User: Fold this.
Amino acid sequence: MSGQIRHANPSDYGRVIQHVNAWWGGRDMAPMLPKLFFLHFEGTSFVAEDDEGKLVAFLIGFLSQTDPEEAYIHFVGVAPSHRGSGIGRELYGRFFEVVANEGRTRVRCVTSPVNEGSVAFHESLGFVSERVAEDYDGPGQDRVLFVKQLA
Amino acid sequence: MSGQIRHANPSDYGRVIQHVNAWWGGRDMAPMLPKLFFLHFEGTSFVAEDDEGKLVAFLIGFLSQTDPEEAYIHFVGVAPSHRGSGIGRELYGRFFEVVANEGRTRVRCVTSPVNEGSVAFHESLGFVSERVAEDYDGPGQDRVLFVKQLA
Assistant:
């Protein structure tokens, strides 16, 4: 793998949002990732940079406020040039470690069922698919609901 | 005012997301409001219903994980038929009360500078504009940064 991992901070937002639409093949992803996640969930969010300080990946997650056993991963992005490098896996590992230290025993996340690469990646990380929920994130927005036990 | 206020819960999500695009004049707001907010921030989020149980307004907010003094309001919607009824003001009041009980002394939120009605509404609630931040939520997404001291 390549890249240095550190906690995300608000000043990372501009760089992330610049890249995110391009990394998603031109889709407008910015509305899903407002700056609030970089301001209020720093301790459970991470960025990875290469040796020249260029952003290569990030993970945005948080501790559930409702369920003290649970943590949630909202958004993960890896630069196309760094896919397959292991940096995504490493970001998830850092998140699992931090939230376990906060007493969380379960991590949840969702992905689109058409994104087979994402489904396979999550399964390889130990996530189990609970079900595919129709219209989960709004009309037409089906999601695979993943959960991983940490303990 | 009209409407009963209670905490939002995950089963409210479908109804909210059905209405939200229409309430915003046809804009696609759903990507800004994934279901995660209804699952993980129940205790600081609210819905208001009329006497027939119809959804008339909602507020989604959370306690900052980074700053133990701070809470944040992400999204507030009021049905066009209920604007001017005071229900929005009442939702903010419930949020202020709940987060003050959690030890928070400051509430932040952002709005678009072109939305003069929203700017005036927040000022009438005691929010102070810190500044207008260019490209705050991504390219072209300028925001007025509001803060309100609770203590």
